[in-house]
Each structure stands twice: as structure tokens, then as C-alpha cells.
Amino acid sequence: MFRKPCPAALGTAVALMLTLGLSACQADESAPAVSDSTAASSSASPSPSELSPEDEAIKQAKPLVQSFFQMKDESMQAPANFKYQWFGKVAIGSAENYLKKWHGESGEQGLHQVGATELVSVEVNEVDLTFKPKVTPPEIPFVEFTVCYDVADLDVVDKDGKSVVSADRKDRGVAQLGVANYEYPDGPWLVDIIEFPEGETC
User: What does the domain layout of the chain look like in residue ranges?
Assistant: First the structure.
């Protein structure tokens, strides 16, 4: 379980990722305008339909989970046509490094993916909107998710079309993702950390 996003290199070997067999769109809503005459009452008594900052963060961060796995799939389905800079649309920090490493090392081995990852469930673990970018280490707003994913229909094959996925790979696994906003509240939410708890299934 991780706590605060902190960009770092991810040294996961391709062999481990083949065992796992793994492969965002983002809400953008402005706060409603408030007239001077109602500002005081509105700030004291929020409308029942108004989301709390935490719920708004979840609303904006959650779509990035699906987009992250979708981009991972797409980068491996046609690796020769994929550009590294596209990863920056959904990820930053160690999560972006993970995508680049997986794509680069798999490509060097002439591998590509058939099929896609299915997300079975996405659950919120924690929301922390503390924003202190100048402290050491910086404290950045993040939403932590636990994801149950299914790779039953996903295969990784070599240039001859032969599967290189371990025969004992489980169809389902668990991933933990931290989606962070380094320019809160107006910046983009991006997947900053991804971890795969060893041996966990769902």
C-alpha cells in the first residue's frame, strides 16, 4: 500500500509483466458562478447537489484508471505505430516510466499484444487533497484506487504469433493506482503510481 505520490523509476522486468499479462478521459466541470449576494450563504451552506472537494477529485480521477489500461493495451497492440509522448496524456512519474519500460522492452523482443484488459471493478481506497508542493518530499493531492482486472482474453505473442505468456498466469489480478494532480486544483489528474500486489487475485 502506498501513501503519497512520489515520481520514481520502476524497474519491473518484462518477464514479471508477462506473468501478469497486463495491458484516461477526464471530467472537466467548472464550479457554478455565485453572485455577491449569495456568496456568503452558499459558502456556509453548500447546495445538496454540490460535490465535496473529495468527491469532485474522485469524479475527475477515476476515468484515468480506465484510460491508463486502455493506453497500455493500445501501445502493445500496435507497438510500431505508438509514440512514447502519448503516455503523458494519462500518466506521470513512475507510472509513465512503467508504461515506457514495458512498451520498450517488449518491442525490443518483437512482442505484441492480442486482446485487451477488462476492468472488473475500481474501488476508492483513499483521497488526500493536501497540496504542499514546496515541502520535502512534496505533498501532492491524490486518489488511490484498487483495481480488479481480467486478462482472460489477452495474449502476448512473438513475431511468429507464438504466445509467450506463462501457462500458470491467473485470469484475474489486483492493481493499486495512485492518480495525482501536481497543479491542483486546475491541473490534470494523471496516474502517478501503479503497483501489483504479489499473489493477489480478485
Answer: 52-195
